[in-house]
Amino acid sequence: MDRITKSLLDESSAEHDLASLPEDKRFEHFAALLTIGRFVSEALETTDVVVGAAGDTGIDALAIIANGSLIESASEVDELAERNGYLDVAFVFVQAERSSAFETAKIGQFSFGVQDFFKEKPALPRGRDVSELANIMSAVYRQSSKFKRGNPVCRMYYVTTGTWTGDVALEARRKAAVDDLVALRIFRAVEFFPIDAEGIQRLYRESRNSISREFEFAQKTVVPTIEGVTEAYVGLLPAPEFLRLIEDETGEMLKGIFYDNVRDWQDFNAVNSEIRTTLESQATRARFALMNNGVTIIAKTMRTTANRFYIEDYQVVNGCQTSHVIHDQRLSIDNSVMIPLRLISTQDDEVIGSIVKATNRQTEVREEQLLALSDFQKKLEAYFNAFEESQRLYYERRSRQYSNAGGIEKTRIVTPGGLIRAYASMFLEEPHRATRSYRRILDRVGVDLFAAGDKLEPYYLAALAAYRLEYLFRNQVLDGRLRAARYEILLAVRLAEMPSPLPRMNSHDMERLCKPLSAKLWNAGLSEKMFSAASEMVLKAAKNDLDVASLRTEPFTDALKELAMPARRQVHKRARLNPRR
User: Which strand (E) or helix (H) includes residue 94?
Assistant: First the structure.
């Protein structure tokens, strides 16, 4: 391994608390981070995608991404299909080799392992991780009627520290790998990416830096000076130029730039279908600028030279639906389609929040959603930052907010999605919805979570518990197979350590209850004992059968709560004996 790649590997391993792993395993996590991490909007936990060594079928990491979300169970596929009405799926496979050269034999083994993954009767033995992912794959194809954008995409990344020179034999083997998968007739596209040392370094730089783009914006008007705004423009941007702002170099949507948008893609509902119809018709597409409210983009950095614009660290805060329809129609639209664009440069979070609220009030968005995505989120960020460094977690309100921050252990970064799952598991007592029905939890934002008067301590506690649990998994203190039950374990810890029923989330009693448990979680010895006991409780409730389909159900949650009753009575007793604790 060359010195630069090794340096990047060591830096990434330290930041993600993986330094204790052998170098070959660290390289697998590193390769997964650089490749799969590009396709998810939130920070990737690589332990979710790196498969176990035994029965890995020649695959080091595997991700199934549907509608922009990393899928962890077959039931999630069914929920997405029901809720969204469509499935847009990508299978991403990674093989990581530290060798200094690409080898045709290893490319062949990787290719065969990928092909075997899609067989109903596989030739290769499968470990637990690959078997569970194969179940998810089968669930995807059972919903093939929902492939409205076409069959899934298959992407393969072969990552090594050598140099890809375009060798004839290697190119032939790569083409054969693609052709073999195309012949299955179950993909709309198959791609094989050889990533060499130079590619590793490029992807690493991209993962660290804010997204930036250059584009031509000729038909524009300068907005007069506004307090808090560095500069702003309104105008019309040709569709091909607009696509450069919302797509990566492979033509895929940049999921991270919609992070501040309060609504995700709603598929082709009535409004979006009308937008598509407008673009499909030669007679109406030229009138698009008159028929669409347009897009609002806020950039932290903007530089202009005449009509040439450079923007960095930007977000589409309004226009998510329009952007997705334009991306869907990208092959048929041209410069005759003009996109109404408001382009704003500001570093002021107050200004950004007010623009998000104002522009999204024009669409069907609930007041509590807007509140949760502005004021409460800022309070959470400030609260997390108020802790001393040794006990500080970093709440990432904006996508890639801490990607350039040096000295921050990346495992301490808490995303909104991760916090919602942990909080719902511990305090709403719904671990079965943390993955399976996650989007149903989102519908309760502003009411059951992120409510205006909620105390901040429970959110920090939930994030801390999730962080400590992942630490135990990463360092192999807890059996890796228990990761499937991590949300149930979070609930078990809370049930064992806090009285039930809980006080109101906006009460001082809730604040008082959370602080002692947070202190225990920061104590390494006590934390390990708590999670070990919680794991035993989950195993007992599951009768040692950690089948995901059984775990992530309401009946299992009820069984776990019933099993925890004796421990809860003990907590009640301690609380009565020590009322000031």
Answer: strand 89-97
